[in-house]
Amino acid sequence: MQKHKLWLIVVIILLAIGGLIYWLAPKNTQTMASQHSEQSSNPSTNASTLPQTTSPNGLPYFSPSQQDTQINCQMKLDGSQHLIVNEQTRNCFEYFITQYGEKSLDQIQQDFNAYIHQNYKEPALSQILDLWKRYMNYRERLGSLQTPNISQDDPQYYRAIFNSTQNLRKQFFSDYEIEGLFGPENTYHEYTLKRLDIIHHKKLNETEKAQKLKALFDELPEDWKENLEQLNKLEDLRKLTADIKARGGSAEEIHQMRTQLVGPEATQRLEVLDSQRSNWKSSVDGYLIERDNIIKSGMSDGAKQKAVQQLRAQHFQNKEDQLRVNTFESIHDQGGKLPYSE
Predict the structure, then answer these.
(1) Separation CA 315–CA 27 (nearest Å)
(2) pLDDT tens-digit profile of 166-217?
(3) Cα(75)–Cα(84) distance, integer angstroms
(4) Rounded to two decimals, what is the model's pTM?
(5) What digits encode the pLDDT tens for the residues 36-86?
(6) Which uninterrupted H or E stretch holds 261?
(7) Cys bridge to 260: 3, 45, 210, 342, which one at CB 3.0-4.6 A?
(8) Domain residues of the chain, as ranges?
(9) Residue 22 CB-density burial (10 A; 0-12 exposed, 13-18 middle, 19+ buried)
(10) Are 164 and 126 in contact, with CB atoms under 8 Å apart?
């Protein structure tokens, strides 16, 4: 029972990571496996045009939570009916594995074997079943990997996890299979780990970090850039700007860092936004001080309310700003930190 609980935890973690990776990964990324398929003559996408959806005993291959979905198991074969290992292969395996909890592991094994026998022929049949067996053993072994004895704040913590996972994969799969099953995932992890190394490099200033981050990003394929650009650059801008401000750096340092990271035009837009935010902060701070003076005065409640309304209208002519400042008033009165954008 404990072993099955551990297995379920591993499945959930991998699905969460996998979901993020496949969402970020470019849709038309080709792995080495795909390149291999192009060298084959007239590759077919799957062995059966209409795959069977029920087992010989009449039970469905999908779980109750998957009943409104198609069976995601269209593995790719070459012209000689040999398996081409790629993301489709892993998607097929994961389709069955994610049924754990609604089905037992034994039932999942039985369903997968029956499905493959119904929909694929030799030589792909034996190749798929052999790879499935090794993939299941690999997934089970993931739960026994030791957590690095390093602080999670240290980038080496994540590098150690990645290296341990890579070493484990080499015990079960060939280089060709690893590239096919995990190629896009590995690309994303390597890029992310290199970013962490740059961001946490103690001998680089923020401008130098921005230069290296941009160079690292420029090395990515164009389709990866499209998916990762906004996500990574926003994160890098926030982190490096916060670092400069935390050590009392100048506005010129922030300007240089931004120019290196996102270019002069985007930097100019960011500086306009900085100015707008600064003006808003000054207006709100000044308004709240005057409002406090009114509230603490000896006027009647009705007079205080009228005076505050007049004050608000003087500081904020725009109706949207007047509504927005109401939030700041409430947080200020409760002693909370005002939600200024940084």
Answers:
(1) 50
(2) 999 999 999 999 999 998 889 888 988 998 899 888 899 988 988 898 898 8
(3) 8
(4) 0.54
(5) 433 333 334 444 444 555 555 545 555 556 655 667 778 899 999 999 999
(6) helix 251-262
(7) 210
(8) 2-186, 201-262, 264-333
(9) middle
(10) no
